[in-house]
Amino acid sequence: MDTIGRQVTAFVTLFMVVALIVLMYGIFEPQRRVAAAQQQKDASIERGAELFAANCAICHGPEGKGIAGAGFPLNTAQNHNGDAKRQAYLQTTIENGKLNVTGKLPVMPMWAEKNNGPLNDQMVGDLVNFITYGN
Ligand code: HEC
């Protein structure tokens, strides 16, 4: 093979190696992203569980089964794997509170920082993730 021929072969080989690397990256990147997203969600659920135990269990019960007259059950089929609408409802209720349907106390407090509550957006999100995870 002459010099040009060798150069062409080297170039083509190099090109194919790079193409293969790009292809492998394209194949494995989505899986890596799904795994990373799941990890983040797991961590969020974990934080939500801690927030729930510290702030919510007193009225909604340690297992979210509710306490008569105090807080509704949250550990319900409706909340488990709640759709986007349900998640939005949970989020606004946690942020803005809710009156007790019995018309008596206690009411559901306002938790969001924007309502002078103790929880920031991420914490509210963690709680929604935890409640819809349902365990
Ligand atoms: C002081 C008692 C109290 C505490 C503490 C409390 N809640 Fe509530 N919660 C209530 C009451 C009362 C209701 C309204 C029940 C009703 O509709 O009559 C309620 C309702 C809710 C609802 C709406 C349920 C539904 O299906 O309509 C959600 C969601 C909720 N609470 C989440 C939380 C979370 C999360 C926390 C902790 C950050 C929390 N609550 C802490 C008393 C409390």
- CATH architecture identity: Orthogonal Bundle
Distinct ligands = heme C
Mean of the pLDDT scores?
93
- CATH class wording: Mainly Alpha
Shape: rod-shaped
Q: Which residues sit in consecutive blocks of at least 5 with pLDDT less than 50? A: none
Secondary structure class reads: mainly alpha
Helix and strand sequence: HHHH
Please name the fourth-level CATH homologous superfamily. Answer: Cytochrome c-like domain
Structure description:
- It contains 4 helices and no strands.
- The protein has one domain: Cytochrome Bc1 Complex, Chain D, domain 2 (Orthogonal Bundle), CATH 1.10.760.10.
- The protein is mainly alpha-helical and 135 residues long.
- The mean pLDDT is 93.
- The protein is 61% helix and 0% strand.
- Helix 1 (3-55) packs across helix 4 and helix 3 crosses helix 4.
- Bound molecules: heme C (HEC).
- The site of heme C has 21 residues, from helix 2 and helix 3.
Tell me briefly what this model is.
This protein is mainly α. The chain has helices at residues 3-55, 57-60, 84-96, 121-133. Heme C (HEC) binds next to α2 and α3.
Give short descriptive properties of this protein:
135 residues; mainly alpha; Cytochrome Bc1 Complex, Chain D, domain 2; rod-shaped; binds heme C
Topology summary:
Elements: H1 3-55, H2 57-60, H3 84-96, H4 121-133
Helix pairs in contact: 1-4, 3-4
Bound molecules: heme C.
